[in-house]
Specification:
There is one protein chain. This protein is mainly alpha-helical. The chain is built from 3 helices and no strands. InterPro entries: Malate_synth_sf, Malate_synthG, MS_N, MS_N_TIM-barrel_dom. This is Malate synthase N-terminal domain-containing protein. It comes from OM182 bacterium BACL3 MAG-120531-bin86. One of its GO terms (cellular component) is cytosol.
Length: 91
């Protein structure tokens, strides 16, 4: 299921340095791939959509101001508005 080079590398170079059972590792790895592959595909599609919009914008705006570019990036959701400073506690 995984590329032979990856399998060989994990089996020969990584797993011997750990106390992990190879069968358990590959089962867990397979489970992670299955769990996140759909959302990863969606995120990659979103990224491609953003990049396409950015490429088109640059084609249509060969000379532009930084402000115009930032406004465009905000309008497509590539950038988010700046929020006030905040503090995170880890107590």
């Amino acid at each position: 299921m995984f590329h032979p080079n990856l399998t060989r590398f994990i089996d020969d170079a990584i797993l011997p340095l750990t106390s992990l059972d190879p069968a358990a590792f590959w089962k867990g790895f397979d489970d992670l791939i299955n769990e996140f592959s759909s959302s990863t595909r969606d995120l990659l599609a979103d990224r491609l959509d953003l990049q396409t919009q950015i490429d088109h914008w640059h084609d249509a705006n060969p000379s532009f101001s930084q402000t115009d570019y930032e406004q465009f990036l905000l309008s497509i959701g590539y950038l988010l508005p700046q929020i006030p400073d905040f503090v995170i506690n880890t107590d």
